[in-house]
Amino acid sequence: MADAARSEDARGAHGPALRERGAVVEALVKHSKVTKVYYPGLPEHAGHEVAASRCGASAAWCVRVAGGEQVALDICAKTKLFTLAESLGGIESLIEHPAR
Q: Which residues are paired to 79 by β-bridges?
């Protein structure tokens, strides 16, 4: 039972990122080291109207960071909130580098 409770706590730790995705995306848009944010919830996204009319805003976003591939790899390696992995079909918060 204790293991199940720890599992629930671990999953719950990812919830705020989903509930607060607008604030997270806004912070990324304003961040000086982020050069582009791809997120259908942003009005300037090419698919914004379709996403808003069909499914609302997604919980997924992509970013480009200044500094190139090595900086992006360093971010993936150093992050503590997200797990470095491809989508596992669950609710986990993941980070990945598509070129690797």
A: none
Q: What is the DSSP letter of 42?
A: S
Distance in angstroms (rounded) separating the CA atoms of residues 54 and 59: 14
In-domain check, residue 63 = yes
- Decide if 46 is inside a domain: yes
Q: How far apart are the first and last CA of the chain?
A: 38
Is the pTM higher than 0.90? The answer reads no
Residue 21 lies in a domain: yes
Residues spanned by the domain of 83: 2-95
- Return the structure tokens found at 42: 């942003």
Residue 51 lies in a domain: yes
Task: Please report, for the domain that includes residue 51, its CATH number.
Answer: 3.90.1150.10
Per-residue pLDDT tens digits for 30-65: 999 999 988 888 888 888 888 778 776 666 788 899
CA dihedral sign of residues 6, 58, 32, 85: positive
